[in-house]
Amino acid sequence: MIVKDKLNSMIGHRREAFTVAVAAVGLVAVAASSAVSFADDSVPQRAAMVVEQAEAIPAVGAAPAPAVEAVPAPAPEVLPAPAPAPEPAPAPMPAPAPAAPVYPNNLDGWIREALDIMAAKGIPGSYEGIMRNIMRESTGNPQAINLWDSNAAAGIPSKGLLQVIDPTFAAYHVEGTPFDVWHPVANIVAACNYAADRYGSMDNVNSAY
Questions:
Q1: Contact of 185 with 158, CB cutoff 8 Å
Q2: Which of 4, 158, 172, 191 has the fewest CB atoms in 10 Å of its CB?
Q3: Which letter does DSSP use for residue 179 in this model?
Q4: Rounded CA gap, 12 and 43, in Å?
Q5: Nearest-angstrom CA–CA distance, 192 and 199
Q6: CB atoms near residue 36 (< 10 Å)
């Protein structure tokens, strides 16, 4: 009886152990099934990750990819500044006007001044011809006057260095000289202008004219 009870007890324990074992096997099977299912779902994603990582890893012995240098942007084109316009050539300085000649206030100076005026006006005559006629008519006195000839009798006496009457002086006065029969230069120039018209030149006069 005692033996039977022990036997039943052992059998009961074995059943319980079997049951536990079976349960354990079921759990393992479920776990394995879940693991397989999880593995099956994640395989494509994990494979893509592995490929990306493999592509990122350089092959053993391969030269590293050259670094890409940044190309600087081209500098803006700088146009040269326009050349300055050449300065105009300086205008030539006008030649200074010749100084006005200075004539001595004597017979020589009066004749020389008269000759310069005559040359400018185109009136002929020479120094020698003028001097010769002055010495005959007035002996070089600019205030000489003839009060005894026919002109004096007519009320128009001859006056000055070349003894010119007033009507003749007025008719042959040369512009640029004083309108004064007593002025020595004006008297010479008017007389030479008259002689040029009447005789061709004072040089051709050798007597009263």
A1: no
A2: 4
A3: S
A4: 46
A5: 10
A6: 10
Of 186 and 49, the one with more pLDDT: 186
- In three-state form (DSSP H/G/I as H, E/B as E, the rest C), the secondary structure along 1-63 is CHHHHHHHHHHHHHHHHHHHHHHHHHHHHHHHHHHHHHHHHHHHHHHHHHHHHHHHCCCCCCC
Residue 101 confidence (pLDDT) above 50: yes
Cα–Cα–Cα angle for 164, 170, 171, nearest 5°? Answer: 95
Tell me the two tokens of residue 160: 């000055």
pTM over cut 0.90: no
Instruction: Give the angle 10-13-15 at the CA atoms, nearest 5°.
Output: 110
Buried b (16+ CB within 10 A) or exposed e, 76-87: eeeeeeeeeeee
Average pLDDT, the chain: 77
Residue 166 is predicted with a pLDDT of 98
Q: Name residue 159's beta-bridge partners.
A: 145, 164
Q: Are 162 and 187 in contact (CB under 8 A)?
A: yes
| 127 contacts 108 by C-beta, under 8 angstroms | no
Give CA–CA dist 112/115, Å, rounded: 5
Which tokens in the block code for residue 31? 């776990």
Instruction: Name the band, by pLDDT with cuts 50, 70 and 90, for residue 149.
Output: very high
CB count, 10 Å around CB of 17?
Answer: 10
Paired residues of 145 in beta bridges: 159
